[in-house]
Design a protein that fits this description.
Layout lengths: L5 H8 L21 E7 L4 H11 L6 E5 L3 E7 L6 E7 L9 H4 L10 E2 L4 E2 L16 E4 L2 E2 L17 E4 L25 E16 L10 H8 L23 E5 L4 H11 L27 E5 L12 E3 L6 E5 L2 H13 L3 E4 L5 E4 L16 E6 L22 E3 L7 E3 L4 E4 L14 E2 L7 H6 L5 E9 L8 H16 L8 E2 L17 E2 L9 E2 L3
Parallel strand pairs: 1-4, 1-9, 2-7, 11-14, 11-17, 13-16
Antiparallel strand pairs: 2-3, 3-4, 5-8, 6-7, 9-22, 10-17, 10-18, 10-22, 10-23, 12-13, 15-16, 19-20, 20-21, 24-25
Length: 532
């Protein structure tokens, strides 16, 4: 059943006073009188969205809709105000889309792509309350509408987001490495109200083809991410005779991603040093991009013009050092899995063109049937897909193709036991490891983040225009935005890879989900441990 009237009903709702429809939706298509709220930006909160919205909405009153991993929509009734709400979260493109479209002074550049509500399809037996009945209420949408700035199309069908979320504070999104394709750096954030949300773990990852006995230092990661090291043997990896797949493969995110901004900050100190646009980042300290691959344009599919998957632009990974850029964390995970499992990887780049990486091929003369050794940087939400204790843990990270590593050490991180081990085994992804010895280095678990020992942590922020007048729902919308930020910041609503920030009403006690240390809004500043 297609929801052909949802978009029309939602648009009409914007002119309806808040008190006119203080009732829960009677079904997945009942949107009359709903307040429309559009959140864009970091995917970091996505695994927790069900829990946050379940915290804000009346139990059993709401429905969830998705477009792949790029968009989510919730239709329900707010518990605090009895207001029907249609809440859309866009994750496509990542953190920069939670900053630039919010504070851009040019209204035309605030219009971004959104979910096409006319493409929504719900199961006949859809029921309300995703938390009480996982999956039963989840409807699907098959299309988006409008275009982002820099892309051709009908901007009139795009939408202005009401508020945004980013993995780091808005001032971090500077040219040339932290600004999304087709956009310009946002120089003035004075028109935005910026609020801290929580702290999130980020960490280096490597494919299973990289032995967990190998120590990979921060300097090693930096060297591989900047192409000052091209080959794994340079950092001490011993490979079997006949294995020629020793070129470093980097699976990374495009500029504008919050995860990439964290990587650029941690390994390149960008944009925290210097005064130029590049802030002192140049030469071998510059993070490499796909065009720096030895085999960029190394092969083509069809015409090779990127117009379709059949005509993809090729990246020949057999040539050696290779960088593959994805527009979302899911793309990085797919790249890592394809590299490890030696399967072709087809993807769409930030420019909208189609690309292909031939991981299924081996360099000439290679005689060892092993996967490619790839690295990347990901937030720890890629390891999890859980809603506290409401449903069983369902790891999203593929614990057979790639693993999180320690900082400045060896071993692999196992989410189920929150430990970092060398030589452990697992029966299937998500199960507790068996055997092994303690790894060297700092483990990316919640306790190490709590104490400030693990420092590759991003502090998330939410932002909205300080003064805005959108329609008759404006004050109610602002009230919801603040309630959403408060719920996301609450220690009781954190997952295993996030922590509430100290200060105000939140005091760490060593066991709760409140960090002892914070950068207090300045990602470029020192990590300060608070005492209580």
């Amino acid at each position: 059943m297609k929801l052909k009237n949802l978009a029309v009903a939602s648009a009409a709702a914007l002119a309806v006073p808040m008190a006119a429809h203080a009732v829960a939706p009677t079904g997945p298509y009942d949107t009359a009188g709903a307040m429309r709220v559009y959140l864009s930006g970091a995917s970091a909160l996505d695994n927790n969205l069900d829990f946050i919205m379940g915290f804000l909405l009346k139990p059993g009153t709401f429905y969830k809709y998705t477009v792949g991993t790029d968009y989510r929509l919730y239709l329900g009734e707010l518990a605090a105000t009895n207001q029907k709400i249609l809440f859309v979260k866009r994750s496509k493109g990542g953190s920069a889309w939670g900053v630039n479209p919010i504070g851009n002074p040019n209204p035309a550049n605030r219009l971004i792509q959104t979910m096409d509500l006319n493409s929504i399809d719900c199961p006949t037996a859809a029921v309300a309350g995703i938390l009480s009945s996982p999956g039963a209420a989840e409807c699907k949408a098959s299309a988006v509408k409008g275009n982002d700035p820099g892309f051709s199309g009908n901007p009139g069908s795009s939408e202005v987001p009401d508020f945004g979320v980013s993995d780091v504070a808005p001032f971090m999104f500077k040219e040339p490495f932290n600004v999304e394709f087709g956009a310009q750096q946002l120089n003035d954030t004075s028109n935005m109200t910026i609020k801290p949300v929580n702290a999130m773990l980020f960490g280096p990852v490597a494919t299973a083809a990289v032995p967990d006995t190998l120590k990979i230092s921060n300097a090693d990661y930096h060297a591989m991410l900047t192409a000052s090291v091209f080959d794994w043997k340079t950092i001490g990896l011993t490979v079997p005779a006949g294995d020629l797949k020793t070129g470093v493969v980097v699976c990374r995110l495009v500029p504008g991603s919050g995860t990439q901004a964290v990587s650029n900050w941690y390994f390149n100190n960008f944009p925290c040093s210097g005064s130029s646009l590049t802030s002192g980042v140049s030469g071998f300290t510059t993070p490499t991009r796909m065009s720096d691959s030895f085999g960029f344009f190394g092969f083509t599919k069809g015409t090779g013009d990127g117009s379709s998957a059949a005509n993809a632009i090729g990246v020949d990974v057999t040539a050696g050092y290779t960088v593959i850029e994805g527009v979302g964390s899911g793309d990085v995970r797919k790249c890592l899995t394809a590299a490890n499992n030696k399967t072709e990887y087809n993807f769409v780049g930030e420019d909208g063109l189609h690309y292909a990486a031939n991981f299924q091929d081996s360099p000439a003369g290679d005689t060892v049937n092993a996967g490619y050794r790839a690295i990347g940087i990901l937030s720890l939400d890629s390891q999890y897909s859980q809603y506290k204790s409401l449903i069983p843990v369902q790891p999203n990270g593929n614990e057979s193709a790639w693993f999180y590593r320690t900082l400045d050490g060896n071993g692999r991180f196992y989410a189920d036991s929150q430990t970092c081990l060398v030589g452990a085994t697992i029966s299937q992804p998500g199960t507790a490891p068996v055997g092994g010895t303690d790894a060297k280095g700092v483990c990316p678990n919640q306790n190490e983040m709590r104490t400030g020992s693990y420092v590759m942590v991003g502090e998330l922020y939410a932002q909205y225009l300080t003064t805005a007048s959108k329609d008759s729902f404006d004050s109610a919308r602002r009230s919801f935005e603040n309630a959403f930020i408060s719920a996301a910041s609450n220690p009781g609503n954190q997952l295993a890879y996030t922590m509430a920030l100290p200060g105000g009403a939140y005091t760490p006690n060593g066991t709760n989900a409140v960090a002892y240390a914070s950068r207090s809004g300045n990602q470029c500043g020192p990590l300060v441990r608070f005492t209580y």
